[in-house]
Design goal:
Layout: E1 12-17, E2 22-32, E3 35-44, E4 54-58, E5 63-75, H1 88-134, H2 139-184, E6 190-201, E7 205-215, E8 218-229, E9 232-243, E10 249-257, H3 282-286, E11 288-289, E12 319-321, E13 326-328, E14 335-345, E15 348-352, E16 360-367, E17 377-383, E18 386-393, E19 401-409, E20 412-424, E21 431-443, E22 453-460, E23 469-473, E24 484-485, E25 490-497, E26 502-513, E27 517-518
Parallel strand pairs: 1-10, 8-17, 11-27, 15-22
Antiparallel strand pairs: 1-2, 2-7, 3-6, 4-7, 5-6, 8-9, 9-14, 10-12, 10-13, 15-16, 16-19, 17-18, 20-21, 21-26, 22-25, 23-26, 24-25
Length: about 525
C-alpha cells in the first residue's frame, strides 16, 4: 500500500446515464516508479458495483494491472454548514459556534491590546523616573500620557470583561444544545469507498489510468420546450437527470442512453399452437354475424406508454450526448441539461373532433429537424403571451412529422347532435340504418377583432370489412359537401368563420346490410 498521506484523486470525467443506472468513467495520471506498487485512489462512490470495475493503463513503457478492488470504510462526516433541510436546533448550534469563534478572536485581540498598553505604561514610568533623576520635568506631558494609557486600559478591560462573560454564557448554552442535538439527531457515519490498485511498470514515469464502473441511483428522462412564434416553432430537447450516487459530477462529458443493461436477453419460449378445422353449421351458413367495434387509427411505431414510466425509444437503443461538459450535483434533485434545439416552419390549424371533445384546439405540425430521435416525454408549451401549458410529445424518428397541440381556444363553441333511423325493405330484407349528425360551430370575437379564421372539423363514418355490409355517404344531403374523406372514414370540413360568425354542418351516411347479417 502506498504510504502517501492522502489517497490519489480519481475524479469523474465522463458519465453514460442509462434508464436506471449510470456508467461512470474516471481518469488520472499516476507518477509511478519502476517495479510493483500498490496505490490507494479516491474517494469514490461506495455504491459502485464491484464486478463492473475495469481499469486500463496507457504509457510509453509496459504497465500491467495486477489487482483491482473497491474497499469501503465507515468514516465520520466532515463538519459542514447546515442546509435548508436541517433542523432549527442544528442551525442554532451552528450560529452559536460561529459566535463563540468570533468572541474568542475578540478576546485574544483585547488581551494583546491590554498587554501592549501595560508595556507602554511601564516604559512611560521608566521615562518619568529617568527624567526626574536627570532634572528634566515634563509634568503636563507625563500627566496627559498616563491619563490616556489608563483610560484605554480601563476601556479595554471593561470590553474584555463583557466578552468573557458572553463567552461563558455562549459556552454553557452551546454545551446544552450539543447535548440536546446528540440526543435528538444522531449523525451516522458515512460509507466511503476507495480503489486499491496494484500495478507493475518496467520503468519510472507518468502512466495514464482509465477506470470505469456501474453505479445505481442515477436516471434520466427526456423533456422538451416548444416555443411558437408565428409560423415557426423552436423545439428545445433537454434531459432531466437525477443522481444520488454519493458524489457530484463536475464538468463531465454526459452521454444519455436508452439501453437496458438489466433487461433479460433470453429468447421467448416456443409453445405449441394447434389449428383445427370444422364444418360450419346450417345456421352459420345462413347468417353473417357482425359487430361494431372501436379501432384506434395509428401508424407503424412503438405502442403508446401511459404515464411515461420509462424511456420510450421505439424499440431501438438511442444515444444522445450533451454538447458541452455539465455538472450534476448528487442531491437527488432534477437537473435540466440542454441537448439540442432547432427552429423550423410549422403550419398550424384550429381543429376540432366534436365526437371526442367540443373544444377547438390550436394544432401545430412540423418535421423533426433535430438530427436525432425525439423520445416520448413532456413538453412545455410557450407562445407569444408566455407559458401556455404542458403537453406530451410522442416518439418521432429523425425527419418524421411531429404534431403538437398548443391548448384550446375559449372563443369557439361546438355543439353536436346525432340522430338515427332504421328501415328494412320487404323484398330483399335489407336493413338500412341512416345516421344524421349536425354540428353547430360558433365564434365569439372581442369588439374590434378582424380577420377570418379557418377551423377544421372532423367526423367519422363506419368502415365495413365484410361484403354483406355497405356504408355510403350521402353527399347530396351533407351541408356543406365535405372537403375530404380518407380511407379510415374520417370526414373533414375546412370552415371559414368571420368574427362573430356561425356555421352549421350536416353529415348524413347510410349503413346497409343484407338479411343474412345479424348484430346490427
Amino acid at each position: 500500500m502506498s504510504t502517501a498521506p492522502k489517497p490519489i484523486a480519481l475524479p469523474v470525467t465522463a458519465v453514460t446515464c442509462l434508464e436506471d443506472r449510470a456508467h461512470v468513467e474516471r481518469t488520472a495520471v499516476l507518477d509511478l516508479e519502476a517495479g510493483v506498487q500498490r496505490l490507494r485512489l479516491g474517494p469514490v462512490s461506495a455504491l459502485a458495483v464491484d464486478r463492473t470495475l475495469h481499469a486500463e493503463l496507457t504509457s510509453e513503457h509496459p504497465a500491467t494491472v495486477l489487482d483491482l478492488r473497491l474497499v469501503r470504510t465507515w468514516t465520520p462526516r466532515e463538519p459542514a454548514p447546515p442546509t435548508e433541510d436541517d433542523s432549527v436546533l442544528r442551525h442554532r448550534v451552528h450560529g452559536l459556534e460561529e459566535e463563540q469563534r468570533a468572541l474568542g478572536q475578540r478576546r485574544d485581540r483585547l488581551k494583546a491590546r491590554l498587554d501592549l498598553l501595560g508595556r507602554l505604561a511601564t516604559d512611560l514610568l521608566r521615562e518619568i523616573g529617568e527624567g526626574a533623576g536627570s532634572g528634566e520635568t515634563e509634568l503636563p506631558r507625563w500627566s496627559r500620557e498616563l491619563d490616556r494609557v489608563d483610560a484605554e486600559r480601563d476601556t479595554h478591560a471593561e470590553e474584555l470583561r463583557v466578552v468573557q462573560a458572553r463567552l461563558t454564557a455562549v459556552g454553557a448554552e452551546l454545551s446544552d444544545l450539543r447535548t440536546a442535538l446528540s440526543l435528538a439527531e444522531e449523525e451516522p457515519a458515512e460509507l466511503v469507498g476507495h480503489i486499491e490498485l496494484a500495478v507493475r511498470t518496467s520503468a519510472a514515469g507518468p502512466v495514464g489510468l482509465r477506470l470505469s464502473h456501474l453505479t445505481p441511483c442515477a436516471l434520466w428522462r427526456p423533456a422538451y420546450r416548444a416555443v411558437l412564434d408565428g409560423d415557426a416553432v423552436t423545439l428545445e430537447t433537454d434531459a432531466m437527470v437525477w443522481q444520488r450516487t454519493g458524489e457530484d459530477w463536475s464538468h463531465v462529458r454526459l452521454t444519455l442512453s436508452t439501453a437496458r443493461s438489466a433487461a433479460a436477453t433470453e429468447p421467448p419460449r416456443l409453445d405449441e399452437d394447434r389449428l383445427t378445422l370444422r364444418d360450419r353449421s346450417a345456421e352459420e351458413r345462413r347468417t353473417v354475424d357482425v359487430e361494431l367495434r372501436e379501432e384506434e387509427t395509428g401508424s407503424l411505431g412503438p405502442a403508446p406508454v401511459l404515464g411515461l414510466p420509462g424511456v420510450d425509444d421505439g424499440g431501438e437503443a438511442r444515444v444522445l450526448s450533451s454538447p458541452a461538459p455539465v455538472s450534476v450535483p448528487g442531491d437527488g434533485r432534477a437537473h435540466r441539461v440542454r441537448l439540442s434545439a432547432f427552429t423550423t416552419a410549422a403550419p398550424s390549424e384550429y381543429a376540432c373532433a366534436p365526437e371526442l371533445s367540443p373544444l377547438v384546439t390550436h394544432v401545430v405540425r412540423f418535421d423533426n429537424r433535430s438530427g436525432h430521435a425525439l423520445l416520448a416525454g413532456p413538453v412545455d408549451l410557450v407562445r407569444g403571451s408566455g407559458f401556455s401549458g404542458r403537453g406530451t410529445l410522442d416518439f418521432a424518428a429523425p425527419g418524421s412529422p411531429v404534431e403538437l397541440a398548443f391548448g384550446s381556444r375559449d372563443d369557439y363553441r361546438v355543439v353536436r347532435y346525432a340522430e338515427e333511423s332504421r328501415d328494412s325493405t320487404g323484398l330483399t330484407q335489407r336493413t338500412v340504418l341512416t345516421r344524421t349528425v349536425r354540428l353547430h360551430l360558433s365564434r365569439f370575437s372581442a369588439p374590434g377583432e378582424h380577420g377570418d379564421r379557418v377551423v377544421t372539423l372532423r367526423e367519422r363514418v363506419p368502415v365495413s370489412e365484410v361484403a354483406a355490409v355497405h356504408v355510403r355517404l350521402h353527399e347530396y344531403a351533407c351541408s356543406p359537401v365535405p372537403d375530404g374523406v380518407d380511407a379510415e372514414g374520417i370526414v373533414r370540413w375546412d370552415l371559414t368563420l368571420p368574427p362573430g360568425g356561425r356555421r352549421t354542418v350536416t353529415l348524413v351516411y347510410e349503413l346497409s346490410a343484407s338479411g343474412r347479417v345479424t348484430g346490427i
